[in-house]
Amino acid sequence: MHRRRRTALAVSVALLGAGPLLTACGSEAHPGAAAVVGGDRIAVSALQSQVKDVRTAQQASPQAAQLIKNTGQLSRAKLHGLIFDKVLDRAAADAGVTVSRKELQEARAAMAQQAGGAKAFADMLLQQRGLAPDQIDDAVREQVQLTKLAAATGADLGTPQGQAAVTKTLAAASKALKIDVNPRYGTWDDKAIQLTDYQAPWLSQVTKTKPDQPEQDAAVTG
């Protein structure tokens, strides 16, 4: 493992096999919502916009057919990411953690440099993580925020104890937000911090990565 080059970016999106593109309205209590998190709606239209951005970027790639095939559950993956970001925001706020624009810019620049340049970095994230170019900043921010959250709570993500501590922190934030997901997308599991019937190994991705060690040969999980 130490001989491999590790990716600079850990994100909560796991790219799975074929699955339905879910576009129905939310429950009667929240029409048009893919989910409601802490009283805030995640609109189906916003979710569809993220999916469309990725598909547009994929279609422009020479590997378009394979990229699209590998992201059959893209709609669910993007919804997971949108919910997870809100959970992480809540946990970070509770811990007094903030991420400055300068920190974000510096982290992205370092990651891009290690990946071989901005274009190589964007191509890698599209291929491996299903991220469109306009979604990269949010993913970088998530990585920096999660790392700072662990530090602020005294957790070492490189140890089982640290992983358990961060999971507990995020689970508490998730529960407090009272997450309500459109049943056509599944349900949210506060303890696992992910959509049911959807594997998003956010913690294992984080513990296998370091900000200064890009892994350009990592395979897409399926």
List keywords for this structure.
3-stranded antiparallel β-sheet; disordered N terminus; mainly alpha; 5 strands; globular; disordered C terminus; Triger factor/SurA peptide-binding fold; two-stranded antiparallel ribbon; about 220 residues; single chain
Distance between the termini: 20 Å
CATH-derived architecture: Orthogonal Bundle
Query: Count of DSSP helices?
Result: 8
Average pLDDT, rounded to a whole number, is: 80
Order of strands across the main sheet: 2-1-3
Summing up helix and strand content along with how strands pair, one would put the structural category as: mainly alpha
Strand content: 5-15%
Question: Can you tell me the CATH topology?
Answer: Triger factor/SurA peptide-binding fold
The low-confidence parts are 1-28, 203-222
CATH class: Mainly Alpha
Helix and strand pattern? EEHHHHHHHEEEH
Question: What is this entry, summarized?
Answer:
The protein has 222 residues and is mostly helical. It has 8 helices and 5 strands; from the N terminus they run ββαααααααβββα.
